[in-house]
Amino acid sequence: MVMKLMVMTLTLIKTDSGESATESLARRYIGAIGGSANLTSIDACITRLRLNVNDSAQVNEAVAKRLGASGVIRLNKQSVQIIVGTQAESIASAMKKVLTKGPVAAAATSSAPAEPDVKPQAVLNSEKQVIATLLAPVSGEVVALDDVPDEAFASKAVGDGLAIKPSDKWVVAPIAGTLVKIFNTNHAFCLETDNGVEIVVHMGAGYRGAGR
């Protein structure tokens, strides 16, 4: 899976509350999810928060998008994914830290338009008109994103791109750049090109096992 993302860099300055900017953002995401009372577990993939909740209907998509999320996917009543870009792991860790400090209230429901409070962490190619020439990271059959059995990719919520059904076991970088992130299960990595474009290569659709 190859995608282009323009990603916000979260600073580590302390706010008036003594929390870092990432922790402050994480606290607001917890509120968007319906507060700590609605949240049962927190996990992350390279570009998305994977959350278990008591009731996915309580997740406030408008608030999440104001915080910079590019999409919210409700897999079922208890499972939600929020697309936040390659800061997903940092935000998930900060959410866990915030929860150790005490309960977090649900965000207030608002009828106001979902104008973002911060620059989105993940922005679709069509919105940014970012162009880069990529090589196939693996040999195989090209598959349209629409046919990928993972709604986050098929809906292009995590960015545009394509999928490849591999015929070889070797995966290489699709473009020259700096390796800025490897997901802890080794199933995804992110490269940054010289002109600041971030390319995500994700091995496996809906992959949840240990990396190989």
Automatic annotation (TrEMBL):
Isomerase listed as a keyword: no
Sequence ranges assigned to domain PTS EIIA type-1 in this UniProt record: 150-212
EC number(s) stated in the UniProt entry for this protein: 2.7.1.199
Pfam families to which the protein is assigned, alphabetical: PTS_EIIA_1, PTS_EIIB
Keyword GTP-binding in annotation: no
UniProt membrane topology term: Multi-pass membrane protein
UniProt keyword terms in alphabetical order: Cell inner membrane, Cell membrane, Kinase, Membrane, Phosphotransferase system, Sugar transport, Transferase, Transmembrane, Transmembrane helix, Transport
Swiss-Prot/TrEMBL catalytic activity: N(pros)-phospho-L-histidyl-[protein] + D-glucose(out) = D-glucose 6-phosphate(in) + L-histidyl-[protein]
Protein name listed in UniProt: PTS system glucose-specific EIIA component
